[in-house]
Amino acid sequence: MRVSAEEKKATTARIVDVAERQIAEFGLSSLNLRDLAKAADIKPASLYNHYSGGLDEVVLKVNSRTIKILDDLLADAANACDRKNVAVLFEKLAIAYLHFAIDYPKRFGALFEHQMKDQAPIPDWHLQEHYNLFRHVERPLDDLNHDLGAEDRRTLARTIYSAVHGVVQLGLQGRMIALPVPVIEKQLRIITKALATGFSVEAADLSNK
Question: Which of 26, 38, 50, 31 is CA-nearest to residue 114?
């Protein structure tokens, strides 16, 4: 029986919907081709008719949705404060990131746990989605120092992002010592204030030379 374009489109979306629910509830490690196909009401082999990259591509699509949620939360945090007060902005972004990890723990984990099959490279389109998150940090860096080149600004934003992610990840995961949320929030305030203050001083020094 021939499948219409509309039916194929609906099945393609349903596969990601099912995978998204599975990951959100049970985590990335729970996802497998057989169970996904059964829940999506397709044959396992037919998954490749909808996603040529197989399960990897499905996970990337789910992670894209997760990144969209995070991106919206960071945008809301940035819009809620004065962009030129970099210390406050960094703090709000960091706290929003922390609470995203708390509210969506399994989805948050999937963003960093997923490994492509056979060590295949992550597609450029998905890498760009991750990189796009850095713009929330790049904008205030540009306000601090207009002479900072685009590549240097992006590298610096990535470093700041990594610092915040490290505090959040280590604070929540408990492999070392899990910290209460208020303690993590305090640590994020300390580190973001130190970063913003340091960059402000450096920018002022450069402008006076």
Answer: 31
Decide if pLDDT at 165 tops 70.
yes
**pLDDT > 70: what percent of the chain?**
92
The pLDDT value recorded for residue 199 is 80
- In whole angstroms, what is the distance from residue 169 CA to residue 146 CA? 32
pTM of the model: 0.90
The full DSSP string for 110-151 is HHHH---GGGPPPPHHHHHHHHHTTHHHHHHHHHH-TTS-HH
Q: How far apart are CA 94 and CA 24, in angstroms?
A: 22
Q: How far apart are CA 170 and CA 184, in angstroms?
A: 9
Whether the pLDDT of residue 208 is over 70: the answer is: no
